[in-house]
Amino acid sequence: MARPRSLPLVITVHADGTATALYTLPDTEQDEEQPLLRFETLDALLDAHDLEDHEVEELRPLAVFPLSALLVDDEVSLHETIRSALLDAGYRTTTVVTLDAARAHLGRAAPTVMLLDLQVGEELLIELAEAPHAPPTVVFAARADAALLASRFGVGTLAKPFALAELIRAIEDAIRDGKRPTVA
Length: 184
Description:
This protein is of the alpha/beta class. The protein has two domains: 8-64, no CATH class; 67-177, Response regulator (Rossmann fold), CATH 3.40.50. It has helices at 42-48, 53-59, 76-88, 99-108, 118-129, 146-153, 164-177; strands at 8-13, 19-23, 36-39, 67-72, 91-96, 113-117, 137-141, 156-159. The chain has a five-stranded parallel beta sheet with strand order 5-4-6-7-8, sandwiched between helices. A three-stranded antiparallel beta sheet has the order 1-2-3. It is elongated, with a radius of gyration of 17 Å. It starts with 7 loop residues before the first strand and ends in a 7-residue tail after the last helix.
């Protein structure tokens, strides 16, 4: 595997011992470096960066925080498909179908990213816009005004139906750009 040209933003060590590195995405379209790379072990990930010993020790603490996603959607049939795609991308995913369950989860844990069906979570989006520590968020909906509403709150957006690759890209963009709900 070629040596990545940048340092990871987040490193996840999975239960099977593999490690995933999430990189900040470059601004140029010519750069073909993948934003998410999986390695056999954490040591293999660190070795791939050809780092000095002190740099390795600075990166190791990043591996403590696994990537996590909160999926808020009342279409239960989508949960397993999305959860599987996110697991492949290195995210531990919690799925909920109600606003109360989403609020309860957010009260216990801060996900790396939240995926929110606008039909279920418009009220939650408004609440989070006023909260001091809202997670980066991707809103999806079949509604025509979803993109307008999402842009009003500064979050990522996807129109239903969407491809799983589009979802992963939207998540990476939301994390990289810090697309947290805000009041515009």
